[in-house]
Amino acid sequence: MYEKETITQIELARHDAAARDGYPYALWGGSWAQTEPASGDGSVNKPYKISSAAELAWFRDQVNSGNYRISATLTEDIDLSEFCHAADGTKYTEEVSWTPIGNSFNNRYRGTFDGNRKTISNLYIDAKTDDYIGFFGYADNGNIKNITFDNAKVKSSKYDTGILAGFEYSCIIENVKTLKNCSVEGYKYVGGIVGDACGNIINCENHAMVKGEKDNVGGVLGSYNGSSNSITSCANYGEVTSMGALVGGIVGIFESGTIQNSANYGDITGDMYVGNLIGKAKSCNLNNVLGTGNVTAKVSPAGLLIGKIEDSPSPNTASGILAYNSSAKLTIKKSVQTGDAVKAIGEGSLENEADVVKAFTPEQLNSGEVAYLLNGSKSEGELAWYQKLLGADADAYPVLVAAEGNTVYNGSFTCCDGTASSYSNSSSENELVHVASATLTSPEFDADKHIYHMGCLNENCPEHKYVADEDGTLKATKADGKFYVEKLALTDASTAINTQAKFTIKDLQYSRQLTEGQKGYVTLCLPFDINVADVTGVEKCYPVGDMMIHMPTNDASVLKFVLMLDEQSVIKAGTPMIVKLAAENAAQKLVATAQNVEYSANFFANPTAKSLTLRDWDGKSGFMTICHELTNASIGGVYTTTPMAEGSYSFRADGKFGIHTGDLSPYRIYLNVQPSQSASSRTMLFSIGLPDDSSTTGIRIISLGDGKQTGSSAIYTLEGQRVKGTPRKGIYIKNGKKFSVK
């Protein structure tokens, strides 16, 4: 009925009568499509290659039907959401619980299952009547390895519950990880990885919440009886709670064996026998372990490492260091313990305890000192402990995860900021010159200073440099608490500056290449203040005033506008300008310069349009009411760093953006007229001049009645009405000129 050589009488007593008589445990869950893997025969050398949930379900049922020695390897990540899930009223789906692989004592799994570093997601189990609950139920003398669980939800009302397995006997469990979004709840013998174990547990890491109703609850294992076996390089990060006793960050009840190079970082809460590592130990050997979490117990005993150690039947030993956080809280009977009441071990003792049990401050844990000591004061050879000492993602405590550059070295190093460091992630003093602030090979944005860093982050270091933009093309230096860029040259072809930085440009220049022989007027709108005297290639600069006067001509279809200009010596940023070119401009170039210009993230934002007042003037009676129902008019600029292509958007009089046709060049000003429906035909063609000159300016007409620039093919009657289709016999206007149709 069972193999006596693998199951002790004590263990057999834990199985119910039905299981011992050969009856399988009840199966729960539904019937799903199952697919036999296309590759492998289930042997150790040729395991089944599993690539889908359907193939995994087939493998499980093979094991649960008695073929329990078969082996498998995952070739893809597996999503179990269609095979097991909670009830969902919105989708009209009932609860479906995963049936564990090896769902009974008789069908306990004895093969090799290699997760191949793949992830199993959305495991869901809600078991109410059976023991041995997990992805595996009962595993015996097998090997399970290399699996990550994502969003696993495991719940049981009985014994032996874990995310990976409910119970394992003499198995090798290695490289198993549960993520933070996982959880496991059970009655007794509850663990983040395995509920009840006695084999070798290696490189297992639990981030899941672990909750027990009664006794024997642990972050990694609920119970462990390893004898000559060990728990090696295992860590718990999850919160562990129980209403019962025997609660620990690594294991709740520790019958026998060794724990080495393991750590608990989560908070632990239970009734009694509560500890960072072990709730209660009967016979244990501890070597280089760490506990940093808070420990809370209803009653004593409880300790920041172990709740209680029994003095018999055999001696309990300690070696290396048994480190704990001196700032962690030990709370018993709702009272935070202080002074001598704070104990590493609540009751009992370890041989050599006085030599190896050590309290460390958070500063010491953060410095790298403890990681170095846990490695036996070594930085070479095979190491178990690591720690990143600097940067935003630095480790506050020693960790068991190896990462490049996270080895801790001991020495006396002087950094560029003048501070001395005894522990670092480099063995080279030359490399450690900038270690306190990190050396950068690419720009790094500093949100506090609103600038990108390049080089050493220590501002007092000779190698320290700043960059103003993310690409590193603009170099900024610091003086008097501000950042300065020496020179920035803008043209119509300039690309946008990719930065959130705030800095001052000492010498800012905008230049525009003019055409040969160009004269008259052009428009200008700049994102910085200018002194008119600092604009070369021009005769005068006029900021546009607040009034535009309509001067009707004899041709009713052509509207004449005059801009009221006010010559000023200093023109503010974003001000629309009419620029009269110099009569002699050998360079044929317009150049505007400014000094000490403040730059910020909105530097290149388009300026706000200036509202204008439109009024009639017939040359006789003076100003009249607003002409031709033209109720809205505005003028404004654009200084996007590249021309805006046809179909892009520009400002409208209402402050919104309207579509326009043709390219919209940067650093120019544009007229926007929004006429009423009755007057729209009278605004399609007009010229703009200056009081002292009849030359047409560079102002463009955009966003007319329908939001689109009119084309040159439009035809109008003498009354200003637009002609649709082919005009009949008569006199019409096109492009501001009369023509006849015969």
Description:
This protein has 742 residues and is mostly beta strands. It has five domains: 9-33 and 78-374, Pectate Lyase C-like, CATH 2.160.20.110; 376-436, no CATH class; 439-501, no CATH class; 519-711, no CATH class; 716-742, no CATH class. The protein is built from six helices and 62 strands. It has a nine-stranded mixed β-sheet, with no helix packed on it. A hairpin with a 5-residue loop joins strand 55 (649-651) and strand 56. The model is unreliable at 1-31, 554-558, 623-629, 649-659, 676-687 and 703-712 (pLDDT under 50).
Structural domains: how many: 5
Please tell me how large the radius of gyration is: 40 Å
Number of strands: 62
Alpha-carbon distance between the two ends? 114 Å
User: Structural class, judged by helices and strands?
Assistant: mainly beta
CATH fold group of the largest domain: Pectate Lyase C-like
User: Can you give the helix content as a percent range?
Assistant: under 10%
Overall residue-averaged pLDDT value: 82
**Globular, elongated, flat, extended or rod-shaped: what is the shape?**
elongated
Q: Main β-sheet, in a few words?
A: 9 strands, mixed
Give me the side-by-side strand order of the main sheet.
5-8-12-17-21-24-28-32-33
Count of runs of 4 or more consecutive helical residues: 6
What low-confidence regions span 5 or more consecutive residues with pLDDT below 50? 1-31, 554-558, 623-629, 649-659, 676-687, 703-712
The CATH top-level class label of the largest domain? Mainly Beta
CATH architecture of the largest domain: 3 Solenoid
Proportion in β-strands: 35-45%
